[in-house]
Automatic annotation (TrEMBL):
Pfam families: Ferric_reduct, NAD_binding_1. It comes from the Bacteria. InterPro entries: FAD-bd_FR_type (IPR017927), Fe3_Rdtase_TM_dom (IPR013130), FNR_nucleotide-bd (IPR039261), MRET (IPR050415), OxRdtase_FAD/NAD-bd (IPR001433), Riboflavin_synthase-like_b-brl (IPR017938). It is found in: Membrane. This is Oxidoreductase. PROSITE patterns: FAD_FR (PS51384).
Length: 462
């Protein structure tokens, strides 16, 4: 433990450069420009003329179809695990944008179907015209099947539906989005005037299609295959940390060369039999940079519940790293870490990597009971060797939305945080835990004086 903590900081900062500040702005600008290009292609192909000459339904249908297609492909790029994109925005933000573009593209696609069919029906039987389009137009039968697949993904992505599903089931169903996109788009290449009408249109759409497909192949298939072949991870041993909380220690080859920072997570597949194909996201709970990795998992689903029974030597596949709950822009200020439950895992990793001064870190650790406070030995080490102030907060949830337990919830959230961490206004703050708790903790930190750009969160939500 001592050796790992002493050597991890300079090694990580030497190997891994900080993300350039202009990358996020460049990515957002490129996405906005894509929608402007699509609009320009529609206008150049007579969109405005059709809109004002009595063919408005068809004109609107073409434009909504273009927007839907563009957003679908941007959605694929958002979640293709492109390292540049991941480093710029982080999984939390990408997941929100992915959800927004997914719902937007789906409803635009529905509007496209309605308006195009209405324009073609010209006062006739609308359902008969829709059926005729599906059966007779090139690629439309495939598009109908793709729409059904996307509808299934959209329905299971609604928050109320997600909460009733296990993560493993939701993740498996969500993969049908790729099938939906693959089936829904080709009919536009075969029959869409706005896709084939000009050389500029063909160049734009083929470039976007190939970029999306290439990104998926390169970063969701190629890079993980290369990384797993290089590092050859296996389970070393398994340790019970607390009730329902299990740590898995992993060994492999050249692990010090993994391009991962403390606070990040991987998607993990354990080749131990049934269920190996479903990946689960788990954060590192030890500081990377040595010859071992460790994840710590709460028993709350099929994928996580089997961790306790993993056998030494079990092969492991990883995809990642992901996440921006890191110290890449840390500049030496005091550190306040706020963890709830299994949210302690990435923050424990950060404790070993961040180069804070002795006595310059405060860890607030929230749990329901004292028995659920894990890693007591390691936390005592940080207290004695690096002067970390560990503040355990146990007890049932407050009846109001708060980061405090029920017995302390009579205090204001921000006032309580100032008392626990008097230097909060000058601190770098890292927060990890359930979504509602993390939102309350973030709000309290900002109200207590912390700069919003110095408050970092990682949510356990999907």
């Amino acid at each position: 433990m001592t050796t790992m903590t002493a050597t991890a900081v300079p090694d990580v900062h030497r190997r891994l450069r900080a993300t350039p500040r202009w990358w996020p702005g460049a990515g957002a600008t490129a996405a906005g420009l894509s929608l402007l290009i699509v609009t320009a292609l529609w206008v150049s192909n007579g969109g405005i003329t059709d809109l004002t000459s009595g063919d408005a339904f068809t004109a609107i249908g073409r434009l909504t179809g273009l927007y839907a297609s563009d957003l679908l492909l941007l959605q694929v790029l958002l979640m293709a695990r492109i390292p540049l994109v991941e480093k710029s925005f982080g999984q939390d933000r990408l997941a929100r944008w992915h959800r927004w573009t997914g719902f937007s593209s789906f409803w635009l696609m529905m509007l496209h179907i309605v308006t195009i069919t209405t324009g073609y029906a010209v006062g006739g039987n609308w359902f008969a015209e829709l059926w005729n389009l599906i059966l007779t137009y090139p690629g439309m039968l495939l598009a109908a099947a793709g729409t059904v697949a996307l509808l299934m993904v959209v329905v299971t992505s609604i928050r109320a539906a997600r909460r009733r599903m296990r993560y493993e089931s939701w993740h498996l169903l969500h993969l049908y989005a790729y099938l939906g996109v693959g089936l829904a788009l080709p009919h536009q290449i075969w029959a869409g005037e706005d896709f084939t009408g000009t050389a500029w249109a063909r160049a734009y759409w083929w470039t976007l299609y190939l970029a999306a497909a290439g990104a998926v192949i390169a970063y969701r298939i190629g890079l993980p295959l290369l990384r797993n072949r290089r590092h050859r991870l296996t389970v070393s041993h398994v340790v019970a940390e607390a009730p329902g909380l299990t740590s898995v220690h992993l060994s492999g080859e050249k692990l010090a060369e993994l391009p991962v920072r403390a606070g990040q997570f991987f998607h993990w597949r354990f080749l131990d039999g049934r269920g190996w194909s479903r990946a689960n996201p788990f954060s590192l709970s030890s500081t990377p940079g040595g010859d071992m990795l460790r994840i710590t998992v709460k028993n709350q689903g099929d994928g996580s519940s089997r961790m306790a029974s993993l056998k030494p030597g079990t092969r492991v596949l990883i995809e990642g790293p992901f996440g921006k709950l890191t110290g890449e822009d840390y500049s030496g200020e005091p550190v306040v870490l706020m963890a709830c439950g299994v949210g302690i895992t990435p923050l424990l990793s950060l404790l070993g990597e961040l180069p804070y001064r002795d006595g310059g870190a405060t860890l607030i650790y929230r749990a329901r009971t004292a028995d659920e406070l894990a890693f007591r030995g390691e936390l005592e080490w940080y207290e004695s060797r690096r002067g970390v102030r560990v503040v355990p907060l146990t007890g049932p949830r407050a009846r109001r939305t708060s980061w405090l337990p029920a017995e302390l919830a009579g205090n204001g959230d921000a006032d309580a945080l100032r008392r626990v961490a008097p230097d909060i206004a000058d601190s770098r703050v890292y927060i990890c835990g359930p979504e509602e708790w993390a939102a309350a903790a973030r709000a309290a930190a900002i109200e207590a004086g912390a700069r919003p750009d110095r408050v970092h969160t990682e949510l356990f939500a999907w």
